[in-house]
């Protein structure tokens, strides 16, 4: 059994600043906007180009605002944790600009550079790796005369965590015959990864009374525990991605219809891998990179939407581990409407995918419609649709007048009020119905109800 930590009993709420609350009417959420809603956040009972690690993105305002945010949270008994992006920086940073043109610059090894390769006399990139956001993971840099690697967009150059002279970049297996670029997620996580995480803990986190949460996807099951074991000193807990990515095989935006048996399998896996050891787990159904859970795992039909949200809230609340919710999840927020055209979306991965489909199918309307349906189901923007005033940076969900915090705060039976219901010392048998029909249930004889 892992040692008792206060944060293990807490509930975390993820906030995406650009769409949470706009304090000055410029259409962009900001830190003062978050501060203005701290009482609302407290009532919930909760306890990515990097230009500069020491400053605040200008539209979000200032470092002083961040300090005010931290003070405001602490005054309400709320702890705050920031998303630390160490995988990459912007190519517009001074570090990258110094690294690019000179092989003798001290910052040259801050990033990963590789020469072009030739196969049968033809020029090729260093490997066939596909970036997470479609296209090649390698970008040519004219000043350097070499390629740099970016697992995400080309403006986000990956850090070199170890001198690259000993590193190789073997081609990933061919699993997508329709593309020269192959999914290479399993290639990104080499055997040195645990060493790097341990080093971060030893040099930074171990000196503070703090918690960390990591993110694992495409990691072998046998390695999961090593990242959350207290003895291993990697992370406090981790997000396992297999549940929220349920369905896709090769093509993320063409998912198969998920099966409840698979949902239960991954849920059980998330619960059981910490049994009888010193690890811990994180439970979530939404974050800034997923669809809305009501639409993804239930029904966003107004007839079933509220019950779906309550069912999923009960599911999260009854699991062993720390609970994480995403802004708006407490209000039964849904995906964007199915009739939105591709032009309404801002997510880079979705737009790149749609562009690739247009090119590879010569604008075939049937295939494009299928791609748009996949984007509507699972793309990233759904958890980032704005809640702000003024002219928003992207379109607001069409049902924003139907689903409001103001209405739900005064309605004792609303989704927002539902988790606050107290059962005192009562025990309850929880039965969850994932269908849109009434189901019969026979209580197992071994369960005794008083």
From TrEMBL:
Domain of life: Eukaryota
Pfam family name, one: Alpha-amylase
Record-linked InterPro entries: GH, GH13_cat_dom, O16G_dom_2
Domain Glycosyl hydrolase family 13 catalytic: 14-375
Keywords, sorted A to Z: Glycosidase, Hydrolase, Maltose metabolism
Family under the similarity heading: Belongs to the glycosyl hydrolase 13 family.
Name recorded for this polypeptide: Glycoside hydrolase
């Amino acid at each position: 059994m892992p040692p008792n930590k206060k944060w293990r009993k807490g509930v975390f709420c993820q906030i995406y600043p650009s769409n949470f609350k706009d304090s000055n009417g410029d259409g962009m959420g900001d830190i003062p906007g978050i501060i203005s809603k701290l009482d609302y956040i407290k009532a919930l009972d909760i306890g990515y180009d990097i230009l500069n690690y020491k400053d605040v993105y200008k539209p979000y305002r200032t470092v002083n605002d961040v300090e005010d945010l931290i003070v405001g949270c602490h005054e309400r008994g709320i702890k705050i944790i920031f998303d630390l992006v160490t995988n990459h920086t912007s190519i517009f940073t001074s570090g990258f600009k110094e690294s690019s043109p000179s092989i003798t610059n001290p910052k040259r090894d801050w990033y990963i550079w590789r020469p072009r390769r030739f196969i049968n006399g033809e020029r090729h990139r260093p490997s066939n790796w596909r970036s997470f956001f479609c296209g090649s993971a390698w970008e040519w840099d004219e000043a350097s005369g070499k390629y740099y690697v970016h697992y995400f967009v080309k403006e986000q150059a990956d850090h070199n965590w170890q001198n690259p002279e000993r590193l190789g970049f073997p081609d990933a297996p061919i699993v997508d015959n329709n593309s020269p670029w192959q999914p290479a997620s399993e290639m990104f996580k080499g055997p040195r990864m645990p060493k790097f995480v341990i080093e971060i803990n030893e040099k930074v986190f171990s000196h503070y009374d703090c918690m960390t949460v990591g993110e694992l996807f495409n990691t072998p099951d046998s390695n999961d525990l090593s990242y959350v074991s207290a003895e291993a000193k990697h992370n406090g807990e981790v997000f396992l991605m297999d549940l929220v990515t349920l369905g896709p095989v090769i093509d993320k935006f063409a998912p198969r219809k998920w099966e409840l048996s698979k949902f239960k399998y991954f849920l059980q896996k998330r619960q059981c891998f910490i049994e009888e050891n010193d690890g811990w787990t994180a439970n979530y159904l939404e974050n800034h990179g997923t669809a809305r859970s009501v639409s993804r795992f239930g029904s966003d039909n107004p007839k079933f939407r509220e019950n779906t949200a309550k069912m999923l809230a009960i599911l999260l609340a009854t699991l062993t581990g720390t609970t994480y919710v995403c802004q708006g999840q407490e209000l039964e927020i849904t995906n964007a409407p199915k009739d939105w055209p591709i032009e309404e979306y801002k997510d880079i991965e979705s737009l790149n995918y749609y562009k690739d489909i247009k090119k590879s199918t010569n604008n075939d309307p049937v295939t494009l419609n299928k791609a748009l349906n996949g984007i509507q189901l699972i793309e990233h923007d759904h958890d980032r649709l704005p809640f702000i005033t003024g002219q928003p940076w992207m379109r607001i969900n069409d049902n924003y007048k139907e689903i409001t915090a103001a209405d739900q705060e005064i309605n004792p039976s609303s989704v927002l009020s539902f988790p606050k219901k107290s059962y005192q010392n009562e025990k309850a048998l929880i039965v969850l119905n994932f269908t849109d029909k009434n189901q019969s249930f026979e209580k197992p004889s071994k369960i005794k109800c008083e």
